[in-house]
Structure formats: C-alpha cells, structure tokens
C-alpha cells in the first residue's frame, strides 16, 4: 500500500510531503462542488477541482467531541471511550499517539490554528475554551482566539443578559471570556479578521510564510474554523450574498414515519438562543433567516480557506503538500423538523471531505466510495510515506486518489446515544440501518430503523418492521454486528 501511494508522487517522492489539514465545524456538504449551486463556495470548489471530492464520507458520531476524537486518535467511539463533549481522549487513553503527534514524532513541525480538538470542560464547570488543545500533539502551543461572539449593540446586550443569569456574581465585563449564547444570528459590519475565523486564517498565513522561507523541515499544519457552527455570525457582506426571501425551506419537515421518537432531537441547539422560541414550530421568516445566516457563514469560511490556499501557493509549498479538508459532522436545517446535529440520520452523519496530493491521477474527480473520518489518520500517514499505526481502525483512502471508482469498503459506521440506549448505524450503498441497544444489556435490541436510499433518499419512512424486509434486516443486522461490523468492512 505505502509503495503504491509513493508511486503516485513521481518526482517529488524524494522530499517529505507536508500536510495541510483544514477542519470546518458543523458544515454539511452543501457546497458548489457537491452540486449545491445556491451556496457560494468558490475557494472550496477550487480545491475540489484539483483534488477528489468524496460524495459519501461519514463521521463516527455527529457531535464535535467524539467525532474529532475519532479522527485524531484513529479510534472509533467505543474504542476511544469518547461519547460526549465532556470527555477528552487523554482521560481514557493517556498515552495515545494522535495524528499530529505521530507526525511530530517522525520529524515534522506540527502546529494548530483554531478548533482542531474540541474544547473540553468538566460537567458543572464554567464553559471556557481549551486554549492549549492537546499539548503533546504540537511543536508549539496551539493558537486559538478567545470565545467572544457578538459585535453589534443588540448582540452584545443579548450575550450580557445570558451572562448575568449564568454568573450573577461575576463582573459583566467578563462576558467575553465565556461561551454565552445571545442572538442566533448577527451580521456586523466588520472586517474578516475581527472575527475568530479571520484571526485563524491570519495565523495560518503567518505559519505558511515562515515555512516558505525555511523549507528545512516538513510541516503538519492544522487549521480549524468554527463557523458555520452556531451562533451564525459573519461579516455583513457575506449575508448580502443571500436573499432570505428566496431561500427554499427544507422539504420533508416531518419525522420519519415509524421511527422511534428518541431517534430524533428537539432542535435544542437552536432553541437555546435568546431570540428563538422555546417550543413549537419556527416561522417561515425564522427558517429563511437561519438558513441565510448558515450559508453566509459557509461563504465567510470559504473566503478564509481561500486565503490559506493562496498562501500555500504563494510560498511555493502547494506542489509538495497534501491538502485534506473535512467537516466534523453534518447538520439538519429544518429537515425532519430538526435543526442541528446529534442523530444517526444521513444529514447529520454525512460530511464534506476533499483530498489533494501531488501527482494524483484523479484530480477534479468525485468518488462515490464509502469513506469515514476515522480514515483520515491512516490516509495521511500512507500518503506521506509513513507506516500506518497498528491501532488505527480506519482505512487509507490513498488508492482512491488514483482510482476514485475503485471497489471499496461495503459500509460506513456511526453511532449516537440516547440515555440508556446506544444507536449503532451502518450506511451501505443502498441502506441506512440502525440498531438501538440497551446499554445495560447490549444483547437487547430495543428498536431498529431501516431506510432504503434507492427508493427513499430523504429517509422519510422506517421500513425495518416491514415483513418484506425481513431478510434484508437479518443480513444487515449480521453485518452491523452490534457496532463491531466495521472490522469486516475495511479495505
């Protein structure tokens, strides 16, 4: 595998390849390069034109902490022990060698800008950014700007009101030091660099300028953007790209027929903001404004990604750098009546993933292969000529960069818990199959879901109990193997 991957690199194989890893928070694959012409993403599309777009890439768990833990450790959630945002993978595996740490141990200069790890804070503590990330992973301390969100008078007032309720004894001047939620959307008339992600792009540019001057050591640069995670805040010029009254509402706003109620979620992530209803439906105007803001944040992020890619090229580094872009999970924007993530459905588990490497034969192509975020660790190792660590539970996607239509793994695996239940999901070429197991007795299946993407691509009807599907369910249940079926699905 490694020799084959190196063969694609041709003349540049003698020089160690650099790595630029771009992470985007909460971005579903609704981009120009994924066929969504209404979303303006010219810079991501530019990367897609020189790389491979993975149309069917999936996360391991549709929430920030666990999905990033899987990507960074190479372990699936049940192996990493991370099933929520209050657990760090070091709590379970103090000596695990992470993806960037592996490159650091092999002579790379590793650096991080923005959100790569998920900020961890113990339950009951004040929610603050984990500024250092994972110190073992980086050659220098990770750069992560502060948590301030709001910049308009109305936005600041809303955040300060929340802060007073959360911390009545603390001075109001401290509001910008904590994660407090006021308005859901805001469009301040400010320059890009005033906001968090502009600062991240600026720091990434500085790193690339420095790398371009020295070029004496290979680098692994991780650049993490927090938008389009809520609150949806971006400079006004990006909001102006979209007319809310022309934005189509989500189709199929009803929960899937015959699905267990607990499989969905109540849009709590959206409802926690001060200008949103605590219960009941969202108005047409509310939905259109929310989608406008979400798309504006994508366009804002796209501009920052363009800055980073331009800097890579300007400094003469593009021809010797593997570039991979991924989003940590998908998102619902009103589909199934839900806003946010945290389910096992297609829209929450499907992610954006684009990869480009020097000498690849399939530049500008799309791949329908089933791939996963847990594949990123072994992929970057093999693409740069490093042995894939034995603990990795994914597969290298390197062969797909030459042959995107190559026969590949037969399923992708995700999971999400609901109280005492753990839902294990398997996405095959045709089906999405989910088993909900009682955590106290993992042999007890308390509910099943089956969606036929050939006939029901929006997952509107659970057909697991249809007698006609008995043999299909039997086979898929065997392949899922209570969440352990990934072992037999690898390439």
From TrEMBL:
Pfam families reported for this sequence = Sulfatase
**Which residues belong to the signal peptide in this entry?**
none
Membrane-spanning residues: none
**Region of interest called Disordered, as start-end residue ranges on this chain:** 252-287, 451-491
GO cellular component, alphabetical, reads: cytoplasm
In what ranges is there compositional bias, type Basic and acidic residues?
A: 451-484
Keywords, alphabetical: Calcium, Hydrolase, Metal-binding, Signal
* Superkingdom of origin organism: Bacteria
GO terms of molecular function: iduronate-2-sulfatase activity; metal ion binding
Q: Which residues form the Sulfatase N-terminal domain?
A: 18-385
According to its UniProt record, which cofactors does this protein need?
Answer: Ca(2+)
Checking CDD domains in the record gives:
iduronate-2-sulfatase (cd16030)
> Which residue stretches does the UniProt record annotate as biased composition, category Polar residues?
275-287
Query: What InterPro entries does the entry give?
Result: Alkaline_phosphatase_core_sf, IDS, Sulfatase_CS, Sulfatase_N
Q: Which family does it belong to?
A: Belongs to the sulfatase family.
Q: What is this protein called?
A: Iduronate-2-sulfatase
């Amino acid at each position: 595998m490694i020799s084959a991957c190196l063969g694609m690199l041709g003349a540049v194989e003698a020089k160690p390849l650099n790595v630029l890893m771009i992470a985007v928070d909460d971005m579903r694959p609704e981009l120009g390069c994924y066929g969504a012409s209404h979303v303006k993403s010219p810079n991501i599309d530019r990367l897609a034109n020189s790389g491979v777009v993975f149309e069917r890439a999936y996360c391991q768990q549709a929430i920030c902490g666990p999905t990033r833990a899987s990507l960074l450790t190479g372990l699936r959630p049940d192996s990493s022990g991370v099933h929520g945002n209050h657990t760090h993978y070091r709590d379970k595996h103090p000596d695990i060698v992470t993806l960037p740490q592996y490159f650091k141990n092999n002579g790379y200069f590793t650096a991080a800008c923005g959100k790569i790890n998920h900020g961890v804070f113990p339950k009951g503590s004040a929610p603050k950014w984990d500024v250092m990330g994972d110190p073992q992973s980086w050659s220098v301390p990770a750069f992560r700007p502060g948590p301030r969100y709001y910049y308009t008078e109305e936005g600041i007032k809303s955040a300060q009101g929340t802060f007073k309720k959360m911390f009545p004894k603390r001075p109001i001047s401290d509001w910008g030091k904590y994660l407090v939620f006021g308005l859901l959307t805001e469009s301040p008339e400010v320059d890009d660099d005033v906001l968090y992600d502009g600062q991240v792009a600026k720091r990434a540019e500085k790193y690339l300028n420095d790398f371009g001057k020295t070029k004496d050591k290979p680098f692994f640069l991780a650049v993490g953007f927090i938008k389009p995670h809520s609150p949806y805040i971006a400079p006004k010029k990006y909001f102006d790209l979209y007319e809310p009254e022309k934005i189509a509402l989500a189709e199929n706003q009803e929960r899937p027929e015959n699905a267990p109620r607990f499989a969905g979620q109540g849009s709590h992530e959206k409802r926690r903001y001060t200008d949103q209803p605590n219960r009941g439906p969202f108005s047409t105007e509310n939905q259109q404004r929310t989608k406008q803001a979400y798309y504006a944040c994508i366009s804002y992020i796209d501009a920052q990604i363009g800055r980073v890619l331009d800097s890579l090229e300007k400094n003469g580094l593009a021809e010797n750098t593997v570039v991979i872009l991924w989003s940590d999970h998908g998102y619902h924007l009103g589909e199934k009546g839900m806003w946010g993530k945290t389910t096992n459905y297609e829209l929450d588990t499907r992610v954006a993933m684009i990869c480009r490497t020097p000498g690849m034969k399939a530049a500008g192509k799309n791949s329908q292969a089933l791939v996963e975020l847990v594949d990123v660790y072994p992929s970057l190792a093999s693409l740069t000529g490093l042995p894939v660590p034995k603990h990795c539970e994914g597969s290298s996607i390197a062969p797909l960069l030459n042959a995107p239509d190559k026969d590949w793994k037969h399923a992708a695996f995700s999971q999400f818990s609901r109280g005492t239940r753990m839902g294990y999901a398997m996405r095959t070429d045709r089906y999405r199959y989910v088993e909900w197991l009682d955590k106290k007795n993992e042999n007890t299946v308390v509910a099943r879901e089956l969606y036929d993407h050939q006939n029901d691509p929006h997952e509107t009807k659970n057909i697991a109990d249809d007698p006609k599907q008995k043999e299909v369910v039997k086979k898929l249940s065997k392949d899922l193997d209570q969440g352990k079926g990934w072992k037999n699905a690898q390439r």
